[in-house]
Design goal:
With about 80 residues, the protein is an all-alpha fold. Helix content is about 85%, strand content about 0%.
Amino acid sequence: MDYIDLVQWPAMVVTVVSAWFVGSQRPHRRMIAFWGFIASNALWVIWGLNADAYALILLECVLFGMNARGFKKNLNGHRAS
C-alpha cells in the first residue's frame, strides 16, 4: 500500500468535521469549518493526483472556490461578533 493512499482518511475526517461545524450559529465555528473544508480540498487533490482521479480534482477545485466564497461571506459575520 502506498502511504499516499492513507491521505484519504484524514481528508474524509476533516470533511465530516467541517460539515458539522458549518451548521453552527457561532461565527467562529463556521470559520473553523471553512478552514477545514479548504484543508480537505487540498488533501483530496493530493490523493486524487496519486489516484489519477481527475474528476475529483476538478470537483475539489470548484469546491475550493465555493469554500473561499463562504469564508469571505462569513468573515464579516465573524468580525461583528
